What does this fold into?
Amino acid sequence: MDVHHRQVVFTVPKMLRVFFKYKRSLLSDLCLCGKEALLKYFKAVAGRELTPGIIAVIQSFGSRINLHPHLHFLVSEGGSDQEGRFHSVSRFNDDLLREIFTREVFSLLLHKQLINLTLIQKILRWRHTGFHVHSKVRARSKKEAEQVGKYMIRPILSLNRFSIDKAEGKVCYQFGKDSSELEQMDYLEFIARVTSHIPDKGQVTLRYYGLYSNAHRGKMRKRGVDPLLCPSCRGQMSIIAFIEDHKVIDKIIAHLKLTFMAERPPPPQSVQHELLMAAEEREEYF
It folds into this structure.
């Protein structure tokens, strides 16, 4: 959507990360915790239930290819109410978001019987619980939103940071911006680290919620397109004139640098010929 977006990053304490290492399905539940936290935050700020556009990425790795389960969300600054009107929400409070997200994660782990109330009370008494939310990165255009999206789906490691110390027989990986931030490890440990982040079969690490979900986009396509609705301000336009001269139309299209591509281009001539031959054979058969 042509609205401002935020990158919201959700992080869990180190003490709780081990659960997501040995039970990978919990990463999907963790993603739902982040989504629910955002929906409840929007309702608290806007005073009504809103449906934002959310693109969620589940990441299990840190900068050292280590275990670090966390979430990256690209969220529209606002959402649609039940009548379909879009309401802007440009203020993001990380402290409030963190509190809501913390409750969602604790509720999840309690329901799974992985922790108890005693541990929850212990963590909440800490000065820093380990839960963290960061939403300072703002995308003010579609281009900036695409750049944030590319960062969110980055791979586990970068080959530019990878090297081999032949003298020591070690694998080297640069985990920071400074070249001195280098970690050496045995090749078997390196393989183990990388392969530990391979998702389970069928596990989806890129998800779409709200206005970006497949269900919502399908409903919008079924409603059809209003040609008199301005794509920028969503205001109603009026017809000024009808242009029927093809030469004038071509000049306007060339001046505006417009390109048109069919959603489903026609099949190549070879395929068309095969289809035609098959149709003729069917006619002869019947």
